[in-house]
Design brief:
Rossmann fold; OB fold (Dihydrolipoamide Acetyltransferase, E2P); six-stranded mixed β-sheet; five-stranded antiparallel β-sheet; 8 helices; globular; binds adenosine-5'-triphosphate; nucleotide-binding; P-loop_NTPase; transport; Maltose/maltodextrin import ATP-binding protein MalK; EC 3.6.3.19
Length: 347
């Protein structure tokens, strides 16, 4: 297994930048998600790591090997990078059984037969495929095919595994169970994994850290918890988790406590910025109380199972998302108090 280091990596297509000055370090054995909307550059970054594309500027190192250097023109071929790739389309050989699909990389390497059988059996077992080893890919479900792709990765003993939206073709229920297969695969192998997705719940459920991307840049690279509780931009606050971004004024710091004005109400905020101007209100920052210093009207109440999601509206028309054990009818006037939300500075 290996760590990965990207230094000032850029990629242009016909002079148009798809990635700008990407610098990031991924630890050996980390599970990283590249998360962002369509067109933000996730797949391009993955393809650069795999060696399918050459960077326009910058360097890429995997383990102790410099894989690409735009200045010297060095580029290690994809097959020489010892990297596993799992695609959305599974990329299985249709004319080979599950077992043959899995052991094929070992055949190509010319491994002795006994060793080949041992490693193939271990990979089939690790992915729960022993019973299906004799089937053809056409006789498998989407989730089972994806397991074959993982098992094939596993036998190759790669330094890193790159996954490009591997669950995009599966239905919602299967996606959830396949997430466990991926996290299990990660903990068994200790592989460094880079997983591309535009689905924030998928990224939050699996990754140790998430690189949130927008317009060819990594805008924040943090643990799921930090991205949720301490977003550093409106983009991340909106893209990761549910919440509302609102402007604050008259920020005052006194010791470890910071206060600000929100629509005329004094609130306590959490921040590490000198002059924060926005807060990210998560549902858990909003309490419904008789004495709440902001008034709001219930616009909609949705049952989530055990609790309700309330869409509230402040007198100035701004929406708020809160959660409550109790159902409130649309039109009910409620007091809300704001509980120490995260505040950040954005121009
Ligand atoms: P999606 O989630 O839709 O797959 P993405 O975040 O993976 O999107 P990329 O596929 O990396 O985005 O594309 C980033 C940008 O680079 C886009 O504007 C895309 O049009 C452009 N791009 C990607 N590959 C090429 C190419 N081979 N030639 C020209 N432009 C490209």
């Amino acid at each position: 297994m290996a760590d990965i280091s990207l230094t000032s990596v850029e990629k242009h297509f016909d002079g148009i930048p798809a990635l700008h000055a990407i610098s990031a370090d991924i630890q050996d054995g980390e599970f990283i998600a590249l998360l962002g909307p369509s067109g933000c550059g996730k797949s391009t970054l993955l393809r650069l790591l795999a060696g399918f594309e050459m960077p326009t500027a910058g360097t890429i190192r995997i383990g102790s090997t410099e894989m690409a250097n735009a200045q010297t023109g060095r580029s290690v071929a994809p097959e020489a990078r010892n990297i596993g790739f799992v695609f959305q389309s599974y990329a299985l050989w249709p004319h080979m059984t599950v077992r043959r699909n899995v052991c094929y990389p070992l055949e190509v390497r010319g491994l002795p037969k006994a060793e080949l059988i041992r490693q193939t059996d271990a990979a089939l077992q690790a992915t729960g495929l022993q019973q299906l080893a004799g089937r053809m890919p056409s006789e498998l479900s989407g989730g089972q095919r994806q397991r074959v792709a993982l098992a094939r990765c596993l036998v190759s003993d790669p330094d890193a595994v790159l996954l490009d939206e591997p669950l995009a073709n599966l239905d919602v229920a299967l996606r959830a169970s396949m997430q466990e297969v991926f996290t299990d695969f990660h903990s068994r192998t200790g592989a460094t994994m880079v997983y591309v997705t535009h689905d924030q719940t998928e990224a939050m459920a699996m990754a140790d850290r998430i690189a949130v991307m927008s317009e060819g840049r990594i805008v924040q690279f943090d643990t799921p918890e930090t991205l949720y509780t301490q977003p550093r931009s409106r983009f991340v606050a909106d893209f990761v988790g549910e919440g509302t971004v609102l402007p604050i004024h008259d920020v005052r710091h006194a010791g470890t406590q910071s206060q600000a004005q929100l629509y005329g109400a004094q609130i306590t905020i959490q921040t590490d910025a000198q002059r924060p101007n926005l807060i990210c209100l998560r549902p858990e920052n909003i309490r419904i109380t008789e004495t709440g210093n902001l008034r709001s009207e219930v616009k909609r109440s949705t049952y989530l199972g055990g609790r309700y999601r309330l869409t509230l509206q402040l007198p100035n028309g701004m929406p708020l998302i809160a959660e409550s054990q109790q159902r409130y009818a649309a039109g009910t006037q409620l007091g809300v108090s704001i509980d120490a939300p995260w505040a950040f500075a954005e121009a």
